[in-house]
Design brief:
Chain lengths: 114, 114
């Protein structure tokens, strides 16, 4: 068994919670999009140009899914459509922070040849 | 531009760090595997049975990649091969913790109909 008896409830609950988060944020782009929008509202073209490898169709789909889940909203700014992080989307900041922190540490580790 | 002038370095650095983390932990299974191994060494069959939807070939590949990146190690326990988290793998705990925390909150939000 993956979750042994002594910690069964905690282990099962944790794996399910992680599964829920990955359901919403899985894939290559969503966390990067949320991190980018953490710096302020962005236009579709800015997001597409700024995130290497993402095509317009994929970007459209990812933004739609983030909107459906209440993490991103489409608004107008100076007569243009922009995408902005919602208050609920901002609750991801601690997770995004830990991801960035770990990634920086990992890059240093690699550069030090560990 | 996705990272405007005022925060350019910080924004670019953060997006790259997240990209690095996703490179290692991306996909449906790796974070769940690391979370499960956080509860102690597990045999291949326990991991496969315990993580819904993962087949033996995929599990083999994911474990190999986690091993290559120093996050998991194969060891022997009572004459059987088990997979265990490495000290470096344990540095993921804060990230895994935030993922679980957010997932729990999200599930509650959904159940409360928000």
């Amino acid at each position: 068994m993956i979750c042994n008896d002594t910690e069964f409830a905690d282990c099962r609950g944790r794996l399910r919670a992680i599964h829920d988060t990955l359901d919403l944020l899985g894939g290559k782009w969503k966390v990067t999009l949320m991190a980018a929008l953490g710096y302020g509202p962005r236009r579709f073209t800015d997001l597409q140009r700024g995130i290497r490898g993402i095509g317009p169709k994929m970007l459209t789909r990812e933004l739609q899914e983030l909107e459906i889940n209440g993490l991103v909203q489409r608004t107008g700014q100076d007569g243009k459509v922009v995408y902005a992080i919602t208050p609920y989307g901002e609750t991801l900041e601690p997770l995004i922070h830990e991801m960035a922190l770990w990634g920086r540490g990992h890059r240093q580790r690699i550069m030090q040849g560990n």
